[in-house]
């Protein structure tokens, strides 16, 4: 019987399958329920004790060899089968790329730019790190002027003449210094103020300011330009209202409200039941500012206005917390697919 086992071992070692069927046949022959190994294990019970050791060792060797062979055959034919079955459809289109969306502030900024571009305004930009002159002094805010406190400024400690611009009016100063009247330009950009962060305020935000300078520009031109903007942006039925205000660089100055685009003037918590919401500050450019920037205030006059892009975006999309614009949660951002 030992000899029989050794013959089996040789057979197992030599065996080569030419097909899946013959490999399967081999498996059943050796490892199947009624296979060689089971038969031999049954026979093992009747082997005389003194032969049990040699018989057992041989039998185990056969078992291991047979199992190894079956494993090898399965791997071999299994891999082949996989290759045969794996159908690659080269005509299938690729997974679509998920396109990003524009940030809501960019959407609104671009919309505002487009409206003013149609009126002939160019776009001007300037540095975010400014000097005192362009952010304050040229704008009729000399040192010690109490109105400087209106804008909580981040100064650069080592050089107090250097600061983070608190408004994009600084760009208008730069523009006037470099260009002659007539001027029609808008300056979008990021501005900085040392304010506590809350649902309604942030230390970083965005503005668009506009400047229009020519001969005989009047307050009526300002009002009509802003009415046009409000109706283009918020809808044809929008009304505007001007309230007297104060800015050092404009005289007279005003704050502009639009009729609440949410309740249509009936009263809601966005307009605090007044029917009006503030959107911007504006006024006729103070002649001092024109002169500071090299424009003849006897010949030219002009208007300026400035709005916060966050504020306009919150009104347009009814966003109640300004901080959402900076957190960049994709679930928030994805909602602003531009039509
Ligand atoms: N620069 C002003 C601000 O940041 C806004 C403004 C611009 C007001 C132009 C009047 C004219 O608050």
Description:
By secondary structure, the protein is α+β, with helices and mostly antiparallel strands. The chain folds into two domains: 2-85; 104-336, BirA Bifunctional Protein, domain 2. The protein is 41% helix and 21% strand. The protein has twelve helices and ten strands. The chain has helices at 2-14, 20-31, 36-44, 49-85, 104-118, 132-135, 169-178, 219-234, 287-292, 309-317, 324-327, 330-333; strands at 122-123, 129-131, 155-156, 159-164, 183-192, 204-214, 240-247, 250-259, 276-285, 301-308. The strands form two sheets. The chain has a seven-stranded mixed beta sheet with strand order 1-5-6-10-9-8-7, with helices on both faces. Strands 2-4-3 form a three-stranded antiparallel beta sheet. The longest helix has 37 residues, at 49-85. Phenylalanine binds next to strand 8, strand 9 and strand 10.
At the fourth CATH level, what is the homologous superfamily of the largest domain?
A: Bira Bifunctional Protein, Domain 2
- The string of secondary-structure elements, in order, is HHHHHEEHEEHEEHEEEHEHHH
Task: Output the number of helix runs.
Answer: 12
Q: What is the CATH architecture assignment of the largest domain? A: 2-Layer Sandwich
C-alpha end-to-end distance: 86 Å
* Helix proportion: 40-55%
Q: State the strand order across the main sheet.
A: 1-5-6-10-9-8-7
Task: Tell me the radius of gyration.
Answer: 41 Å
Number of domains: 2
In the CATH hierarchy, the third-tier topology of the largest domain is known as BirA Bifunctional Protein, domain 2
**β-strand number:** 10
- Low-confidence runs of at least 5 consecutive residues: none
Instruction: Outline the biggest β-sheet.
Output: 7 strands, mixed
Bound molecules: phenylalanine
Query: Helix/strand/pairing class, anyone?
Result: alpha+beta
* Average predicted confidence as pLDDT: 90
What proportion strand? 15-25%
């Amino acid at each position: 019987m030992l000899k029989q086992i050794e013959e089996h071992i040789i057979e197992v070692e030599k065996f080569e399958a030419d097909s899946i069927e013959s490999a399967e046949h081999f498996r059943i022959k050796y490892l199947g329920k009624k296979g060689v190994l089971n038969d031999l294990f049954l026979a093992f019970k009747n082997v005389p004790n003194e032969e049990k050791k040699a018989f057992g060792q041989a039998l185990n060797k056969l078992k291991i060899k047979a199992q190894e062979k079956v494993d090898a055959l399965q791997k071999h034919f299994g891999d082949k089968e996989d290759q045969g079955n794996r159908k690659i459809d080269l005509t299938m289109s690729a997974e679509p790329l998920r396109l990003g969306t524009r940030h809501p502030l960019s959407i609104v900024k671009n919309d505002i730019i487009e409206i003013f571009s149609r009126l002939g305004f160019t776009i001007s930009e300037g540095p975010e790190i400014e000097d005192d002159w362009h952010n304050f002094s040229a704008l009729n805010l000399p040192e010690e002027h109490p109105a400087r406190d209106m804008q909580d400024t981040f100064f650069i400690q080592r050089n107090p003449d250097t600061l983070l611009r608190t408004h994009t009016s600084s760009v208008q100063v730069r523009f006037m210094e470099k260009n002659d009247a007539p001027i029609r330009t808008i300056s979008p950009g990021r501005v900085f103020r040392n304010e506590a962060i809350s649902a309604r305020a942030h230390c970083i935000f965005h503005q668009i300011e506009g400047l229009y300078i020519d001969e005989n520009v009047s307050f009526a031109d300002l009002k009509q330009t802003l009415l046009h903007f409000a109706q283009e942006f918020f809808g044809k039925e929008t009304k505007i209202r001007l309230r007297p205000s104060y800015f050092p660089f404009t005289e007279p100055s005003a704050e502009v409200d639009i009729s609440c685009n949410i309740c249509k003037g009936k009263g809601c918590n966005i307009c605090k039941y007044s029917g009006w919401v503030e959107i911007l500050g504006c006024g006729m450019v103070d002649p001092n500012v024109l002169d500071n920037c090299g424009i003849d205030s006897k010949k030219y006059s002009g208007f300026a206005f400035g709005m916060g892009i966050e504020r306009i975006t919150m009104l347009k999309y009814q966003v109640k917390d300004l901080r959402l614009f900076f957190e960049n949660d994709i679930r928030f951002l994805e909602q602003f697919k531009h039509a």
